[in-house]
Please model this.
Amino acid sequence: MANDFIGRGWSFPPKIGPQGGLLLTTDRNEIDQSIRIILMTSIGQRVMRTTFGCRIHELVFAPNNAETASQAVRYVTEALGMWEPRIYVNEVLAAPHPDQDNHLLIDIKYTVKGTNDPRSLVFPFYLIPEE
Model:
């Protein structure tokens, strides 16, 4: 199989499939789910792997401005470079959502290393507005 390097695993979040067993990912969405897991995990959250995750959660109380977007790009790029070896990160962009003040959209463009398959993923990150 051409995509053996991608692997298979439980879907995220874990779900029960139509035949009663755990639902597994497909090679198409395995990497997308892995990226989401990395970005949704705070540094220190995993007991046996305390450096796993992304520092983006440090920005949850930050204002939704260009500086916060720049930090988000840096944190996402660092985390994916460290924890997702199956991809090349081509570009990460972050911008405020046009309709929601507390919503930062992070656009990740990447290429799967084994197949040179270009893909993109938009990750929503929610900020807590100051009171």
User: Anything to note?
Assistant: The chain has a mean pLDDT of 85.
